[in-house]
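Hey, can you fold this one?
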Amino acid sequence: MRTPSEPGRPTGLPHAHARALERASKAGLSPSKVLAAATWAAGRCDRDTAVRLAEVAAMVGQPWSDESNGDHLYAIIRGGRVVTILWRRSTQPASPEAFRVQRVMSFNGSLEGGH
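Sure. Predicted structure:
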């Protein structure tokens, strides 16, 4: 799957890779570490799962805008593959129903620094 050509967005990358690059960079996280953590988690998920990859101190993006925004970074895994990476506000539900997955879990590694 390829990302559509949108102004300011990486093109030619699988959707999840483009989202990792875009979303991690906005919070000063390493995109390669975000993607590696999401891929590592996907290899250990036997069902559709939302994995909380990071929590940041300040809100990323504008609440109630058309762009992903929040202070928690999640990977959505379906069929053993990372399908997207998104921001979610800590004030929003983080239940399986909210993510339309079977379970929600947290990644406990470090995603800060380096590329």
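The longest strand covers residues 49-60. Let me know if you want another pass with a different chain boundary.
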